[in-house]
Amino acid sequence: MTHQTPHTCSSSISRCRWAETHPLLRIYHDEEWGMTVRDSRMLWEMLMLEGFQAGLSWLTVLRRREGFRKAFAGFDPVQVAQFDEADSERLMQDPGIIRARAKIQATIGNARAYLTMQEQGEDFSTFCWNMVPGAPVRNETEQVLTCSPASEALSKALKKRGFKFVGPVIVYAWMQAVGMVVDHDPTCFRYGER
């Protein structure tokens, strides 16, 4: 069943300011951003994409998302964990993704860290959501935050498990994207959702 929303067609709808700057951002905002994600693999995919976004715009990632999915075997951690140096070199030549060696290698290493957690009986989704008691947490500071005590704690816990490119700013953006933090503008049509 396809999720349909009447909000993507109406220009009279008030959205978060960042979502009004490009049609792809508008669709992403209306249909995905801030929606609760509990699937471990999807959470991992989104965290990897947030890592690739570091230092760039989210629009850059959205434009290449299908290229990333193709290049990284549908973000299947089992397959990505088996990538070797030849795969890294292949990915460095792939114009469909952001070709940053450190980020590519971090994604491969993060697939291995994800699988290690799984092997040790630690479900990625349960682990992450348990790090944010009371989630989803509504940002009521009236400020646009870049990190929080929860993102700092989760970042530290992920790094302890071997993850890279998971600093508190990246983790906070990811928490917003997957619904752990509700960070819509007060004037946004989705602000009251939880």
Strand content: under 5%
Task: Report the mean per-residue pLDDT as an integer.
Answer: 91
Structural class: mainly alpha
Number of strands: 2
* Envelope shape: globular
Give the termini separation. 22 Å
Strand order, largest beta sheet: 1-2
Low-confidence stretches: 1-10
Order of helices and strands: HHHHHHHEHHE
In percent, how helical is the residue content? 40-55%
Keywords:
single chain; 50% helix; mainly alpha; disordered N terminus; 194 residues; globular
What can you tell me about this protein's structure?
- Helix 2 packs across helix 3, helix 2 (40-53) packs across helix 9 and helix 8 packs across helix 9 (168-177).
- The model is unreliable at 1-10 (pLDDT under 50).
- This protein starts with 22 loop residues before the first helix and ends in a 12-residue tail after the last strand.
- The longest helix is centred in the middle third of the chain and has 19 residues, at 101-119.
- It contains 9 helices and 2 strands.
- With 194 residues, it is mostly helical.
- 50% of the residues lie in helices and 2% in strands.
- The protein has a two-stranded parallel sheet.
